[in-house]
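Contributing new records

If you add data, match the layout below exactly. Sequence lines come first and carry their own label; structure lines follow with theirs. Keep one chain per record. Anything else will be rejected by the validation script.
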Amino acid sequence: MARAAQRENCDVEKGMKEIPLRFLVERERRFVVVYCQWIVGSHLVFDLKDARHPKLVAFPFFAQNTGFGTTPRPGLITWRKEAGVFEALTGTDMCPSSRLRHVYRLGTTEGYTSGTSSFVLVRVDVTARGCGGNQPWSTVWQAPNWPESMIVR
């Protein structure tokens, strides 16, 4: 695990002093969430399907004004087991500033086409962060439900 993180320029030992590694098993999939300190800290998620060769997971993200992209550094991740979603927060400690929260669910059929675990972006929220406290979250994008006639089976 340490070698896989080091390939991504992540000092695992330094990161573990801030936030411990988190091992997750969800729907028979195994992951480890690793905190890495860069200019702005972020988590990396590794798929442990083959524990000898952890695979870095790339997350979709909302690229303001241009569409979507992917990143292995989605921000600070929280697993909301009761809701079955990952939440990734990005932002800065500058005052005032805004923060983004990308909400993901674990992919189901997507793994059949790609052969790897995937996370599906379901919602993007934003909040203005004032200098005296946090503001409420507002949803700026939510994945629409596909029409039944468009679902490939």
